Amino acid sequence: MSQGSSGSVGFISLGCPKALVDSERILTQLRVEGYQVVPSYQQADVVVVNTCGFIDAAVEESMGAIDEALTENGKVIVTGCLGAKADVIRERFPDLLSITGPQDYAAVMDAVHTQLPPAHDPYLDLVPDSGIKLTPRHYAYLKISEGCNHKCSFCIIPSMRGKLRSRGIDDVMLEAERLVRGGVKELLVIAQDTSAYGVDIKYRSGQWREREWQTRMYDLCQALGELDAWTRLHYVYPYPHVDEVIPLMAEGKILPYLDIPLQHGSPRVLKAMRRPAAAENTLERIKTWRSICPDITLRSTFIVGFPGETDEDFEILLDFLHEAQLDRVGAFTYSPVDGAPANALADPVPEELKQERLQRFMHTQAEISEKRLAAKVGQTMTVLIDEVHDEAVLARSPADAPEIDGQVVLPAGAGRPGQFVEVKITEADEHDLFATPI
């Protein structure tokens, strides 16, 4: 691709879905201002790297991406979560053009403008009203707030992204409506803490579609349920008011799916983590949710080998898994994060023991998942097709979020990406379902 008068920008996006939304917003602004976004270092006049800094592995990946961009291009702008530690980055890479933290879109654009003055092109300015997306056309992440008010001892996200800042409900719904109008079939609602939506701006109402809505979780879910698309909730802390949303799932307004970062099952470890919920209360809530909406899918993430975790704590965690019978689970061993209070906790767990516990944890959950998936054989359900290959078609059910959960494998020729298909489940393993179209 030849360079235009407005200049060409290379872009690297790392990190979680929340960072992906930041990348989409920056790319949309670049396109609006007439810049060309190019796929290689050699074609780019400048490179933007949107970094992640959550755990050490993510920091090293981000540092590696910056190093590669500098080596291959030489003109690099850094933004994102790791950008909140500008002194650390600058010490290693003194020749960077600019370093900014997450959500600082204006500063990124200012840095681009310094290198490449904007030039509006009437053809390039025709950006879809839903903006530029980095996901497939049929699903999109909908970020409803920034920041977090929790002080979990293992996490430094609040120091990077700040305190909770909810978007007004009108703003969120207008974006959601534009996305659906642009062909999106599934909205993945994300935030650092989705269930805290609106608590920082209580009583603010909106007039989306000439009806008054409050900026709070229940009203947002109710409003999203009026759109012609799946709505999936991620990063939901199990606060009491989450119970109000479950009937909307039972009524089919939003998907019967909750992604809840529980992190552990031992009360002692949860206290050391400074988590805002008690394990025994969570188990009772799960029973209540399933009584209201039997089809609800529950996914969660856990940390194994947290400092001070004893054999007894770990056995309590396994007991919690058996009792909770979660559908989808992810886990990772505790990794010290620079700046996290948990680094100072006593009795760190040896790495070999962490890995042993992780294997036991995942084996336990694999057995649970396999049984829960096997119970779906013979059922009929609606799936959304993601990918089409010569040998098979890959889809997802309401129980499967993209990239982190399982898939529903269909025979070749079953449909096209973005299409809803009615299927009958014929087989299951510990991760995926296999089905035929009805």
From TrEMBL:
Q: Which Pfam families match?
A: Radical_SAM (PF04055), TRAM_2 (PF18693), UPF0004 (PF00919)
Which residue ranges does the record assign to the Radical SAM core domain?
134-371
The biological process GO terms on file are: tRNA modification
Q: Which reaction does it catalyse?
A: L-aspartate(89)-[ribosomal protein uS12]-hydrogen + (sulfur carrier)-SH + AH2 + 2 S-adenosyl-L-methionine = 3-methylsulfanyl-L-aspartate(89)-[ribosomal protein uS12]-hydrogen + (sulfur carrier)-H + 5'-deoxyadenosine + L-methionine + A + S-adenosyl-L-homocysteine + 2 H(+)
GO cellular component terms, semicolon-separated: cytosol; ribosome
Can you provide one Gene Ontology molecular function annotated for this UniProt record?
aspartic acid methylthiotransferase activity
Residues involved in [4Fe-4S] cluster 2 binding: C148, C152, C155
Give the highest taxon in the source lineage: Bacteria
EC numbers for this chain? 2.8.4.4
Residue stretches making up the TRAM domain? 374-438
Could you tell me what this protein is called? Ribosomal protein uS12 methylthiotransferase RimO
Q: Which organism is it from?
A: Oceanococcus atlanticus
- What is the gene name? rimO
